[in-house]
Amino acid sequence: MATVNVEFVKFKGQDKLNKKLKELSVIRASLKIGFFQNSTYPDGTSVAAVAYINEYGANNHPARPFMQKTATANMNKWVDGIAKNIKGAGKFNLNTVKNAYKMAGIVAVGDVKKTIKSWPPGGNSKQTVARKAKRAQAGKGTSAINPETVLIDTGKMISSVAYEVRG
Fold this sequence. Notes:
Blueprint: H1 14-25, E1 30-34, H2 47-56, H3 66-89, H4 94-118, H5 126-138, H6 156-159, E2 162-166
Antiparallel strand pairs: 1-2
Helix pairs in contact: 3-4
């Protein structure tokens, strides 16, 4: 029967590295971008539900994956920003991670809003176009929009994009 001898090599700085790894293992923080439960339309409809339907589609509503498009285009920028902000803080702890996440959240919310605003017009049903045109003529919107504009109707969804940091 063969035997295996395992030797652990001690290297300079190992104790310091082990201490840092232990510190890192207890940091539990998260960043969420999107639409949260407390955001509703005046009739009680959940903004998150409307955003979900816009993102993934349902029945006669085509998918308009604005969140996925935003994340794909900006994820590296957000991660780099988090890393730079943590490094710039000079220390790595829960507070610096949470602050870096908050800054990334602010940027990500702006990026989602930019994607929504720049979504190409077209694809609305005839009923949606007519409803938006009628609302614009009646002055019931905050400002008249092109009835072919998608993802923006009353402005409630775009104004409800938010971030949340936990930890």
